[in-house]
Design a protein that fits this description.
Length: 342
């Protein structure tokens, strides 16, 4: 009896880690980490609740920005929403899983920026040309933005080279597909700054926060500005009548990723397959300013809903190149800060 008791104790000791791991995998349902605030609530309504309605148990949890929160994330989360500037380093650092694309619907049903080694495009947001419709009834382009003689008035641009240099080249007639090829050359960077020189006296620089682009438009300080579409559409819901020009907008991809070692891997893959379906991404524009990245996600939308989506015509967008800014951001920021009028 003593031998049997000792053997049982050894077996329990050996089985403990295995049992604990199995319990960990089944102790909680699929958990999706979302940003706090309006964006997280919008995603809950657009894709998480419809996934739960299929009978799949799913919980959500808040996640702050940055890479630090991804260390050991599988202890709390299975799926996380990441901005493009976080997804790349997280993938390179092994903090998220490499995706099995065959298990989540295939790369071919996504626009290329939405199909990376570690991320499936959740949605795109955009910084777009916005204007006060009460003062300018037409639909301006970046070329009109620069044409002070034709359309007099102050202009707003974000006080950063990221996006601003791209806008300058678009205004100078560069096709979206050629912008980063040019910015990788000294001549291309000089061309962008030369274009900014032309507009400098008329620019009111904005930064995120209290005095942002929507504030400048609402206060009448500028006639037109580059602006995050999400903030413009939020202002319109409060009674403003600001326009958005999606052609030539700067799109940023936010992606779903699976935490490294996620215990609910199969359920996480089912979630990604669901949210990557173009039919399901068609709910995103109704939340205002989010566009689907699956091919066909914009088809069949009512015109008033399609007008809220930056990706109704993805070919007209310039997708921001995060790799370019990781490699060149410090150098171009120093040059931009030195160029800024004092």
């Amino acid at each position: 009896m003593m031998l049997r008791a000792a053997l049982a104790a050894v077996l329990m000791t050996l089985a403990g880690p295995l049992t604990a791991h199995a319990d960990e995998a089944s102790a909680r349902p699929l958990t999706v980490a979302l940003p706090a605030g309006p964006l997280g609530r919008a995603l809950q309504r657009a894709v998480v609740d419809p996934f739960a309605a299929t009978g799949a148990p799913v919980h959500t949890a808040p996640r702050g920005p940055g890479l630090d929160s991804l260390v050991g994330a599988a202890a709390h989360w299975d799926v996380v929403l990441l901005a493009a500037d976080t997804l790349g380093p997280a993938c390179q650092g092994g903090l998220v899983e490499k995706l099995d694309w065959a298990a989540i619907g295939g790369r071919e049903r996504q626009w290329p920026p939405a199909a990376t080694d570690c991320g499936l495009g959740a949605f795109a947001t955009a910084t777009a040309l916005s204007w006060d419709r009460a003062k300018f009834p037409g639909t301006p382009t970046w070329q009109d933005f620069w044409d002070i003689a034709k359309v007099p008035g102050k202009r707003g641009l974000e006080r950063t080279p990221r996006g601003t240099l791209e806008i300058a080249l678009l205004a100078d007639g560069v096709a979206p597909a050629d912008v980063y090829r040019l910015l990788r050359t000294d001549d291309g960077v000089t061309r962008a700054f030369r274009k900014l020189d032309q507009l400098a006296p008329y620019i009111d620089w904005w930064t995120p926060g209290a005095r942002d682009a929507a504030h400048l438009l609402g206060s009448g300080e500028v006639l037109m500005t580059s602006a995050p579409a999400l903030s413009v559409l939020a202002a319109n819901r409060e009674g403003h009548h600001f326009g958005i020009q999606w052609t030539g907008a700067l799109a940023e991809v936010h992606s779903w990723a699976i935490a490294k070692g996620a215990p609910n891997l199969a359920a996480a893959q089912r979630f990604l397959a669901f949210v990557g379906d173009p039919k399901n991404q068609g709910r995103l524009p109704e939340e205002g300013g989010m566009g689907g990245l699956a091919k066909g996600a914009g088809e069949g939308l009512r015109p008033e809903i399609a007008a809220l989506s930056p990706t109704t015509s993805p070919a007209t967008l310039l997708f921001l190149d995060e790799g370019f800014w990781r490699d060149n951001g410090a150098k171009l920021t120093a040059r931009f800060d030195a160029w800024l009028p004092r």
